[in-house]
Amino acid sequence: MRRPKWFMTGNGATGWRAGIAVLGALCAVIVALSGADAKADVEEGDSLKLPEIMVTLDGEAVTSVAQWRQTRRDEILDLFRTHVYGRSPDAPVEMSYKTFEEDPHALGGKALRRQVALTLSTEAGEARIDVLLYLPAAAEEPVPVFLLLNFGGNHTVHSDSAIALPRGWVQPRVSPPEEYRGARQDVHCVELIIERGYGVATAYCGDIDPDYRHGFTHGVHQLFDVPEERPGDAWGAVAAWAWGLSRILDYLETEKAVDSSRVAVLGHSRLGKAALWAGAEDERFSVVISNNSGCTGAALARRPVGESVAAINRSFPHWFADNYKAYSDREDELPVDQHMLIALIAPRPAYVGSASEDRWADPEGEFLAAVHAAPAYELYGLKGLSTTEMPDVNTPIQEGHIGYHLRAGRHDVTEYDWERYMDFAEKHWK
Fold first, then answer.
1. 125 phi and psi, to 5 degrees?
2. Verdict on whether the full-model pTM lies above 0.85
3. Above pLDDT 90, what percent of the chain?
4. Count of CB atoms situated within 10 Å of the CB of 102
5. DSSP character at residue 85
6. What's the sign of the alpha-carbon dihedral 65, 71, 74, 80?
7. How many CB atoms lie under 10 A from the CB of residue 214?
8. Class in CATH terms, 82-429
9. Cα–Cα distance for residue pair 9/19, rounded to 1 Å
10. Cα distance from N-terminal residue to C-terminal residue, the chain
């Protein structure tokens, strides 16, 4: 049973409505309305009549990697662009990178901290994305990096007083922003990542696209869009955030201290949706990680559990293409589902993290999407998810090229999640 229309908390509504300081508290109300201990398995996914991954639009079975890459993968990408996320711009953009602050002895000498302004320019104007980069100070070789967007500004990811404050729009209740310095450092685990020998790069999602209904006249949208001429498949905020992640990767490819062949893109909640879409569109990301991304992220749309397509379109109409609204309460008519999104990441490793109390994000639906993405990996001779039965809490599955865990707790990113993501990435980066 779907949640009542008035229930708009959790995966769908934390963020700009509540602000970064109360994000975790609001997520605590996401409880198991039904079936908290339910086990999902592959048979349940089969009963949903999911769209076939390995059948082309012409009805041909896909039996080779060449056929997948030459035909079916592009078909699926185009279906997602047309019906769900919208089309990112093909128009040229000029980019420049300028370091505006650097300290080779940050975090008590553990890290090199670098802050870089990425300026994106078109004939319509400019947009700036501030990137915060931490790298292990003792590294003698280029290091792999975890790249993610943050919700409240770079200053929220660590209490480091040198981190610049946001320059433009900030989430409501996160103003003045200085009060929230380090407010989410428990989520970003910067020092833990550095201790494991990896770097971390982050940027504020509001630099790329402010998370409210502004008519697509701010952020990177202003560089390309004519609001009154937006077609039904024009990109929304999620696609803009994904596009911004790729532009940050462009920058990381210029950093000699970064091993740009080993950049993992990661996102939580709505930014987990963006991370998945970024990983699907941009094959330079070597590992793709979704944390509690839920509806139109990792969770199957066809399961009548947690947040629905209707609910997400009603609460956040700016996140997706206008065409997606046609599938509100009509998920069975979608020509795609989220197992196909994970399949687009093949043969690169993909990881889905769920939380036991995050029923709004439908952990079972996230697991089943990971299960049913396996055919794309098997085409490459790789193992997808190594089981078809949902695991117990805190029992990660990491044997294949698709990983999954169900963490105890609520809608959040924890040290447990980070340890599992680094374990998985490390396995595939060796």
1. 150, -160
2. yes
3. 82
4. 13
5. I
6. negative
7. 16
8. alpha beta
9. 13
10. 44
